[in-house]
Amino acid sequence: MRKLMVGLMIVVGLLAVTPLAMPAMAQGSFSLPGSQDPVGLITSGAVIPFLGEGLAGGGMSFLELYAPVDSVEVHMFLFDSACVRGGPWINVPLTPNDVALLRIDNIGAPAPTSGLITAGKSDGGGFTLFPWRPELGEVVAARTLWANSNGNFVRVIDPIALATYGEEFLNFANEGGWSPMRTAAAFFAPLEAGGLHTTIYFVCPNTNIQRHLPSNGGALSPSTSPVLIGFPIIRPELQAAGATTPLRVRIYDDEENLLRDVTSSCNCLTIRPVTGLDAVYASAASAPDGTYTEVEGSTSTAVPATCSTTVIETITGNAPNSGNACSGSPAGCVFGGAPACTGQFQQITPAIPGLGPFSFVAYRSITVPGFDVFGRVPGGNRCSIQGGGPFCSATSDR
């Protein structure tokens, strides 16, 4: 593969002189026609990243909205880079074939200057988001234009659609709604040298954006009442609010040799220079022609219950007490067997199960003075990216 990588480096050098348009990369897996278009017409709802002065070192974000089918209301909540909601709600009514352009990063305190937008339609009072209904013509196209004079670029940030036009029936079943969020992603990065830099923008929403099972909630709740349709479920489930999403990062050279297998993390909207993932990206000795990287949304580590070694609870019928995961007493006894347990060590703190894998979306920028390329990187099922094939795992590994 070395010839390919050398060729890519030559192209990068030429692009620094003569910029070319980069094609969007289709994402998705096996599903209904239309659902694999990453910038297609959006139904139900969307999550839209934006970056401004605070997080990205300068810049402005303009939100483009289109109503190509019929009248539609775009009702939005703003979340900061940690997925904490701030500022007022924003409502933009659109008529058929209408377009709107608004700056989204300068709404004013306490609204965030960088973060995520959740969009749908209003409940009428402005405090709850409901899904757009495609059978009513409520179809939207959206994207963010991120303009930064410091970096001399205008970047297009593709939205994260919960469903796209053509899969209405999946949308209203509240299951299987398509979105580009996946449990893995892959990207190429040239060698970090000579002013050439690669940065990854991770979008790892948490349960403030959507929560489901055992109780629904978040801005894009799967169900808002027993009689109203909720948003399609983002699978696998999102990380708990306030917790970071664990990431596993495998880095290869251009001859497919594994260089690093390291861990990282993201929290809602996280910017990582590739050298922040590992220093090998800048190693001319290890990867002179660049690297290929696979990132997975990992499973959080399970924490066992903490048990007392002295305090013993009374049990009934040689069975453990409800909610207590500790062993029986005396040591070596068997619940429901022999030798029988006469008590159970008291549980101090409950066990915390390992959760995940968690889904995310990643965008990549490659910059060199006078040249900038930006776009969403290919995503996929982490089991597939490991080489197991498209049907190798359950829904949790989506």
Radius of gyration: 24 Å
| Number of distinct helices | 5
Q: Which ranges are low-confidence, i.e. pLDDT below 50, for 5 or more consecutive residues?
A: 3-35, 168-176
Which CATH C-level class of the largest domain is it?
Mainly Beta
CATH architecture of the largest domain: Sandwich
Helices and strands, in order, run as HEHEEEEEEEEEHEEEEEHEEEEEEEH
The portion of residues forming beta strands comes to 35-45%
Estimate the global geometry from the Cα principal axes. globular
The main sheet comes to: 6 strands, antiparallel
Supply the number of structural domains: 3
Number of strands: 22
Distance N to C terminus: 29 Å
Average pLDDT confidence is 83
Helix content: under 10%
Quick synopsis:
With 398 residues, the protein is mainly beta. Helices cover 9% and strands 36% of the residues. 38% of the residues are buried.
Describe this structure as you would to a colleague.
The chain is mainly beta. It folds into three domains: 1-25 and 181-206 and 242-303 and 353-398, TM1070-like (Hypothetical Protein Tm1070, Chain: A), CATH 2.60.290.11; 31-175, no CATH class; 306-349, no CATH class. Helix content is 9%, strand content 36%. The chain has five helices and 22 strands. It has helices at 2-15, 53-56, 168-172, 274-277, 382-388, and strands spanning 42-50, 60-67, 72-79, 90-94, 98-103, 115-122, 129-130, 141-148, 153-157, 160-164, 184-189, 197-204, 245-252, 258-266, 268-273, 291-297, 306-314, 328-329, 343-349, 361-368, 371-376, 379-380.
